[in-house]
Specification:
It is built from 15 helices and twelve strands. Helix 2 packs parallel to helix 13, helix 5 packs parallel to helix 6 and helix 6 packs parallel to helix 7. It is an alpha/beta fold. The protein has a single domain, classed as Alpha-Beta Barrel (TIM Barrel). The strands form three sheets. An eight-stranded parallel β-sheet has the order 1-4-5-6-9-10-11-12. The protein has a two-stranded antiparallel sheet with strand order 2-3. A two-stranded antiparallel ribbon has the order 7-8. The two termini are 26 Å apart.
């Protein structure tokens, strides 16, 4: 898939930085080829049109197992209740046509052996059942019994080929091993054969490996872990070796857009400047291109600051809508507009929001696109 990242011209003046506030910053960082950013008061498109690629579900047996194993919170957020009826009620209120459901952190990795394999199969089969009972409202990304690579390959093949799920979800790391590590290569090869869509979601860091701050993981640590995973995937060449896999980064890519120059600093060095144009670039010199090829969702990131940063590294066609429901239930606006992400209108006009919230997601998930149109 080709990238349409526009040339970016940034003219961040002292007046824009100090006097213009957020609107000034957004306008200063806005790619000139896209025209003038929409103003905050511009309304979103009307109707139930959104396609949500960052939405979670907790089937009954899965949620019971989480609680039984002490997972009373997920990322610091109380483990929520979930049902198809609740999800449809949420979607109807916020103008969401369909959700691609996924199991959030910790996946099924809190189990081991046969228990993890069986739980993954249960969650994936449950999701596939929703395609029958609610065919136009739900898609799904398969959870895999990671870090068991052989079992995960088998489950991915079954979920994608037999259950016809829309992709897979992978956590940023398993037992401290980040995506990009060579031990994940066999799984990536299997996913490449299917041109799979892969949703990369952050995982909680063990308490002994992070600062002892009185902050829930979802507030900051989740974004940092997505950044670590994406960086490892790039510098080890994983995203370069498997261009057929489309990777979606949660929460606007964490800190990847903001750190894009720093991550790609090698390409700015003498080595990068002197590298022959007719030779393939090693991964460390190709990070800017790889960053542009990720897909970035809007979950908990529907703001001019976040979206301007994403637009600085990729095209609008690589942004997809995400709600993070039900984990975002306490943060969603309860307004008469029924807009789940009003901050998107601070930088996108109505046509651009339709592209991001409807067309882009369906372009990546052909099975769900066919179901929605039927």
């Amino acid at each position: 898939m080709t990238n349409s990242r526009p040339a970016l011209r940034i003219d961040l003046t002292r007046r824009a930085a100090l006097g213009g506030g957020l609107a000034g910053l957004a306008a200063a960082a806005w790619p000139a080829s896209l025209g003038t950013p929409a103003r905050a008061e511009q309304p979103a498109p009307a109707g139930t049109y959104r396609i949500d690629l960052h939405a979670h579900f907790l089937p009954p047996d899965y949620r019971a197992a989480l609680l039984e194993h002490g997972h009373l919170t997920i990322g610091g957020y109380p483990t929520p209740d979930w049902s198809p009826e609740q999800a449809i009620g949420f979607m109807d209120y916020y103008g969401i046509q369909a959700q691609a459901l996924s199991v959030s952190d910790p996946g099924v990795s809190f189990l081991s052996g046969r228990d993890a394999i069986d739980m993954a199969r249960y969650c994936n089969t449950y999701a596939a059942g929703l395609f029958t009972t609610h065919p136009t409202r739900f898609g799904a990304f398969a959870v895999l019994p990671m870090p068991d690579i052989a079992a995960s390959i088998a489950e991915a093949i079954y979920a994608l080929d037999e259950l016809r799920l829309d992709g897979v979800i992978l956590l940023s790391a398993y037992n401290g091993v980040y995506l990009g590590d060579p031990r994940f290569e066999p799984l990536m090869a299997a996913l490449r054969q299917r041109n799979a869509y892969v949703f990369v979601h952050p995982a909680a860091i063990p308490d002994n490996a992070k600062p002892a701050l009185p902050l829930p993981d979802f507030l900051e640590e989740f974004t940092f872990d997505t950044t670590r995973a994406a960086t490892m995937m790039m510098v080890t060449g994983m995203t370069q070796r498997y261009p057929g896999i489309r990777f979606q980064l949660a929460h606007a890519g964490g800190a990847v857009p903001f750190l894009s120059h720093r991550i790609s600093v090698a390409s700015q060095s003498v080595l990068g400047r002197l590298w022959p144009e007719d030779l393939p670039k090693p991964s460390i010199l190709d990070t800017q291109n790889q960053i542009s090829r990720f897909y970035y969702d809007t979950a908990l990131s529907g703001s001019a600051a976040a979206m301007a940063s994403v637009l600085a590294v990729t095209g609008r066609d690589h942004i997809v809508f995400g709600s993070d429901w039900p984990f975002s239930a306490l943060t969603l606006p309860q307004t008469g507009s029924h807009d789940p992400a009003p901050g998107l209108s601070a930088i996108f006009d109505a046509d651009q929001r339709m592209e991001i919230e409807h067309h882009n997601p369906l372009r990546q998930l052909p099975r769900l696109a066919d179901a929605v149109k039927s």
